[in-house]
Amino acid sequence: MRRTARVRRTLARGLRFAADHGADVANLSIAGPAPSKVLQEAVEYASAKGVTIVAAAGNDGRASVSWPAAYPAVIAVGAVDRGRRLAYYSNHGRALDLVAPGGAGLNTDTGFGPSDGVQSQTLKGSRAEFCFCFMASTSAAAAVVSGVAALLVGSGRARRPVEVAAALRDGARDLGPRGWDRRFGAGLVQAASALAVGQPPAAAGSQPAEPGSDLPLPVIAFGAALAAAAALVALGGRRRRRRASG
User: Fold this and answer.
1) What is the DSSP secondary-structure string of 84-113?
2) Is the distance from CB of 208 to CB of 200 less than 8 angstroms?
3) From residue 137, how far is each of 96, 140, 206, 208 by CA, in Å?
4) In percent, how much of the chain has pLDDT > 70?
5) Distance, CA of 215 to chain centre
6) Per-residue pLDDT tens digits for 77-87
7) How many other C-beta atoms lie within 10 A of the C-beta of residue 107?
8) By CB neighbour count within 10 A (0-12 exposed, 13-18 middle, 19+ buried), where does 133 fall?
9) Which pLDDT score, from 0 to 100, does residue 5 have?
10) 23 contacts: CB under 8 Å, gap ≥ 6
């Protein structure tokens, strides 16, 4: 219990630090079975400061989304395999927003390439065993969605968290029953479609660029690695860009 509380406090401090230093997108590839007041307050704080927060739905195969993904201010991401089927381990349910590639979770690290996994730099089994290997998880799926969110913010097509979330959902490829459903949310994330849904930045005397063309990337990256193999990665840099332009 003490270790869990310590991890939550560390996460909360990292998220607040990212928000205070100009982060635009925060990836929370973590999942817990219960809500946490300290983490919820940090999520609400960061979201109010304009940080889009993306989190893993969890790898328990449950029909309910884990925390912090279940918080309303967080974009909850489940995982699909290469056949666009919901991965057997992926949590899903009422709080799910969308899904992304995460792998099937079976025989992923074969040594000869993935049967269906995501190439990762991570811990395997213990803190002492680091690997560059193929893994499968909703954590990997959340990272994909965080990357698309960063493209939306960096291109100027979406700024506020609510705008980013709307573009991600509206641009998703529908899977399962028509429209939103508990297994796939709004569907499979689609970078080009999300960029097309977002509003191109206004430019006097010029035509809007085609989605995906000449997109400026966010220029600051923040990260905090946690002992529990959780990662907080924030992309963006509103304050630095403002100081540079001022």
Assistant:
1) SPBPTT---STT--EEEE----SS---SSS
2) yes
3) 15, 6, 43, 37
4) 79
5) 20
6) 999 999 999 99
7) 12
8) middle
9) 87
10) 46, 51, 220, 222, 234, 235, 236, 237
Cis peptide before 114 (omega within 30 of 0): no
Higher-confidence position of 109 and 138 = 138
- Cα 88 to Cα 23, 77, 140, 229: the distances in Å are 33, 14, 15, 22
Calpha distance 162→95 (Å, rounded)? 15
Tokens of 25: 């997108």
| Residue 138 · residue 77 · CB < 8 Å | yes
The DSSP secondary-structure symbol of 188 reads: B
Residue 228 has pLDDT above 80, yes or no: no
How do residues 193-219 score in pLDDT, each as one tens digit?
A: 999 998 777 643 444 444 444 433 332
What the block records as the tokens of 139 is: 């954590």
* Average pLDDT value for residue range 68-91: 96
Rounded Cα distance, 32 and 43, in Å: 15
In tens, the pLDDT along 3-50 reads 788 889 999 999 999 999 999 999 999 999 999 999 999 999 999 999
- Give residue 172's identity as a one-letter amino acid code: A
Name the CATH topology of 2-103+136-200+216-236.
Answer: Rossmann fold (3.40.50)
What CA–CA distance (Å, rounded) separates 70 from 165? 14
Tens-digit pLDDT profile for residues 14-27: 999 999 999 999 99
Would you give the distance in Å from CA 223 to the centre of its chain? Answer: 14
